Amino acid sequence: MNTSFTAGGFTQGGGGGAGTAAPEVKEGFCPLVIKQILKLGDDGIKIFGTTFGVMNLVAIVRSIEPSSTKIMYKLEDHTGRIDAHLWLDESKAETIEPIKLNTYVRAFGIPKTRDGVKVIMLFKIRPIKSANDITTHLLEMMNTRYTCEKNLIMMRSGSNAVSDVDTGMDVDTTNGGMSSSTGLKGKPLIIYQAIKGHKSDEGISIQQIHQKFKHISIQEIRQITDNMSLEGHIYSSIDTDHFLPTE
């Protein structure tokens, strides 16, 4: 039996009859930041080909607007702001935990587009009582992205890693053209060094790498970073264009 998530909540999906397409398999909760939510399409919560049923977000509450039918929150994290709506159910009204302005919360729901604006339709929102939850959420978000991205790369390339894209140019002569810790050389090595040397919590972007090495095309940089992600040298952080080293 497949359990899927719809706008109204959980529904139990049985096996389809003859000629009926099988329901899309959805994973569980997907930790996201607001920038990622705003970039999602209207076809659900999809991260590198993996579909999730529900997103969860850790953010600060910047405004609260209650009404007779719903409560509207404006949520903010380090990547942006978004509105979130919690529809009220009389039978569950007493179970809603009180939320205070300018405090951190964990929100569960699904993103929807209303009049061209992305909002979150909340299923649950609760206050965060430990600062560790904030850090843990970011780590979970990055791990989910890395895992989904790695699975997609492996699915596209098969069980074998993509072939080496070394061209023999831009070798790091300080170590004989070879990184003793990574085994990289040529263009992959200098790109890896740029990623590792960039001091930012969000990582360095493909555009920033291209600015450093204009003789390497953006398409080639993407291919090289895909290879290094598959080999475990780097992982994408806030989106598909930003990378951090694994070491």
Automatic annotation (TrEMBL):
Location in the cell: Nucleus
Chief location: nucleus
Protein name: Putative single-stranded dna-binding replication protein a rpa medium 30 kd subunit
Annotated keywords: DNA replication, DNA-binding, Nucleus
Species of the source: Nyssomyia neivai
Residues spanning the membrane: none
Keyword Transferase: no
Xref: PANTHER family: REPLICATION PROTEIN A-RELATED (PTHR13989), REPLICATION PROTEIN A2 (PTHR13989:SF16)
Keyword Lyase applies: no
One Pfam family matching this protein: RPA_C
Cellular-component GO terms for this entry: chromosome, telomeric region; DNA replication factor A complex; site of double-strand break
GO terms assigned for molecular function: single-stranded DNA binding
Limits of the Replication protein A C-terminal domain: 179-240
Family: Belongs to the replication factor A protein 2 family.
InterPro entries assigned to the protein according to its UniProt record, in alphabetical order: NA-bd_OB-fold, RFA2-like, Rfa2/RPA32, RPA_C, WH-like_DNA-bd_sf, WH_DNA-bd_sf
GO biological process, one term: DNA replication
